[in-house]
Amino acid sequence: MRTFQQVQNLFRRDSSRGESNVSSGGVDRIVSKWRGIGGPGFWYPLLAWAILPVFLVLRAAAPAPAGRGAVTSLSLPPLRIEGQAATAHTQGVEVIGDDFYVTARREDVHPSRALLLRTNPRRTDWDVWDITPRGTGGESSVLDHPGGFQSDGRRLWIPVAESRRNGRSVVRTYALADLRSGAPVKPEREFPVDDHIGALAVSARHKVLLGANWDTETVYVWDLAGHLQRTLRGDALKSRGLGAVAGPEGRVGLAIQDWKWRGEFLYAGGLFKAPGQNVAQPLSRWWRFSHFLEPEFTVQSLALPMILPVEVAHEAMAITGRAGFFLPEDLGTTNRVFRVPLSPRK
């Protein structure tokens, strides 16, 4: 059995303004710890399971600012493909050295195409690779939706899915050494998934791959050979503040848009959703997990600012050092990346 041990930094009332706030000095944080308890006589604490989602709804109504430093932005070059202006719906981003790798669905052509792109702020152009899977007869498939992705240091792990809930996906790896400008690229390996995988996070250290489906209703755990190890649903995700599910058995939480494993920490960016309920903007959240897959885990959260009219965590996120890079808008003639200091209190 597991017991809900503590939820810290509850709201205090700011009497001068009559608004809810947090007592963490500008950081919106919760810490949930679960400890295994053995032996007979222990009953399952249903009330404890219910506390976290209620707290998250309240917390979303008065989000705290992200960090103490100013949010800054940098510009990436206009997107042009084969010499023509193009547009694409952003999905994931990864920062390697000075380069920004981006996955996006190109929607100004028919059929839509799954793209992998690369540039950096000093360039005036993009490297573009079409990674849309082919059908058995060589025709274009309906898998046109690349997702949030991550590098393991040698290769990129990218999901490509149908653009619908519960659609099929294929998880692919692309060697960084094979990504040459102007040359087509082939996946090193791939495996199918009978669900829409919207974001992947990989840890070479732990030899584990995580996949979040649409609205994070389910999280899949594979080894690096693509063998399914376990599946997280229901209470396992509810306790972690993840997933947005409607209905009487539903839950509120973070719908992951992109996530990254860095060392011992798992970082997730996305939108806080409460189906059937009104949640005050901004909806953007950043979660940092320690020991994500263990019975005793911790999670810290930060409310991210809204750069009107943009929700910063609406799409892609990368983590470098103590900052997050967010690419929330579609690629086109102007492309902004927001750098947000990420400083959860310990």
Whole-Å distance between the termini?
A: 27 Å
Provide the number of structural domains.
1
Q: How much is the radius of gyration in Å?
A: 20 Å
Broad CATH class: Mainly Beta
CATH topology title? Tachylectin-2, Chain A
Give the rounded overall mean pLDDT.
81
Q: Shape from CA axes?
A: globular
* CATH second-level architecture: 5 Propeller
- SS elements, strand count: 29
Low-confidence stretches: 1-64
The computed structural class is mainly beta
Strand content: 35-45%
* DSSP helical segment count: 2
Oligomer: single chain
Largest sheet features: 5 strands, antiparallel
* Share of helical residues: under 10%
Note the main attributes of this structure.
5-stranded antiparallel beta sheet, mainly beta, single chain, Tachylectin-2, Chain A, 29 strands, disordered N terminus, 4-stranded antiparallel beta sheet, 346 residues
Show the helix and strand layout:
Layout: E1 2-4, E2 11-14, E3 19-22, E4 34-36, H1 46-61, E5 72-76, E6 80-81, E7 84-85, E8 88-96, E9 99-106, E10 113-119, E11 127-130, E12 143-146, E13 150-151, E14 155-162, E15 169-175, E16 189-193, E17 197-203, E18 208-213, E19 219-222, E20 228-232, H2 234-238, E21 253-262, E22 265-273, E23 284-290, E24 298-303, E25 306-307, E26 310-311, E27 316-320, E28 323-327, E29 335-341
Antiparallel strand pairs: 1-4, 2-3, 5-29, 6-7, 8-9, 9-10, 10-11, 12-14, 13-14, 14-15, 15-16, 17-18, 18-19, 19-20, 21-22, 22-23, 23-24, 25-26, 27-28, 28-29
